[in-house]
# Entry
Amino acid sequence: MISRYTLPEMASVWSENNKFQKWLDIETLAVEARVERGEVPAEALQEIKAKATFDAGRIREIEDRVHHDVIAFLTNVAENVGESSRFIHYGMTSSDILDTGLALQMREAMDLIITEARALCQTLKERALQFRDLAMVGRTHGVHAEPIVFGQKLALWTFEMLRNLIRLRRAREVINYGKISGAVGTYAHLDPAVESYVCRKLGLNPAEVSTQILQRDRHAEYLTAIAVAGSSLDKFALEIRSLQRTEVLEVEEPFARGQKGSSAMPHKRNPIICERICGLARILRANAIAAMENVPLWHERDISHSSVERVIIPDSTTLLHYM
# Structure
C-alpha cells in the first residue's frame, strides 16, 4: 500500500524484517521441537539461536538468482549459521513457513484493527448519547419523512460497528492457524508433534488437516469481514457527505484551520475525509472478491493465490486500519 494511507504501526506489521523474523522464529521452533524429540543435537540448536540472522538486502540479491523467496531466505540464514544449518527446514516445505508466518502477520494486523474498531464503537456511543435530543428531519427515498433525533442515527451506527467488531474478532480466530506438515500435508518427514509444538509456542492452533497450504476459505472470511466493516464506514461517510451538501448542511466533517477546499474556489469546504473513506471501501470489497477467487486451487495446491495475497492482504488491513 502507498505510504499516503499507511499508519506506522501497520507498516511495521507488513515490513520485510517482520516477515523474515516470523520465518526465522518458525524454523527455530521446529528445530527446538526436534531437539526435544532427540532428533537434533542440543548443541546445534544453541548454534542456530546464536548465529541465525538474516539480511533483507542479501535475501533479495539471492532471490534475483534463484527466483524463490524461501530458498533465498534459507540460503542467507545458512550463510550465517554454518554447519548446523543442515537441521533448519528439515522435512518442511516453503508453505509451512509462508502460511504460518502469514497467519502471524494477519493476527497482528487484525489486533490493530480491532483496537481501532473498539475505539470507534465507544466514540459513536458517546456521540449518540450527546445528541439524543437533537431533532432533525428523517428522510426516505431522499425526501423529508418524519422527525428523528441525530442520536438515533449515531446509535444505529454504534450497533452496526459492534456487529463488525464481532465479525473482526471471528476473523482473527479463523486465521489463527498454522501448519508444519511438509509437502502435500502428509507429515512424511516430520512428526505432527513438531507442528503442535511450533503452533503452541506461537499461540496458533494447528490446522486440523491441510494440504501443502492452509485452506484459503480462512483468508476469504478474514478479508470479507474487513470488506463488510469498510462498507459500514462507507455507509456512515456517505450519509455525512449527503448531509454536508450546501442546500442541507446539517452535519459537517472537520475543516482544520488553514485548510483549503479548492485551488479555484476558496469558499469550498469539501467532505474530503468522507469521500476518501467511500473510495477506499471500494478497494476492500474488490479485494474480498479476489480472496474468494483464491479458495479453489489445483489438487493439493498451486500458487495462483500467492501473488494475489501479496497485494490484497497487506492492502486491505492497511486501508481499514487507516479508515
Observations:
- The chain has one domain: 3-322.
- The longest strand covers residues 143-149.
- Residues 3-322 form a domain with the Fumarase C; Chain A, domain 2 fold (CATH 1.20.200.10).
- Strands lie at 135-140, 143-149, 177-178, 205-206.
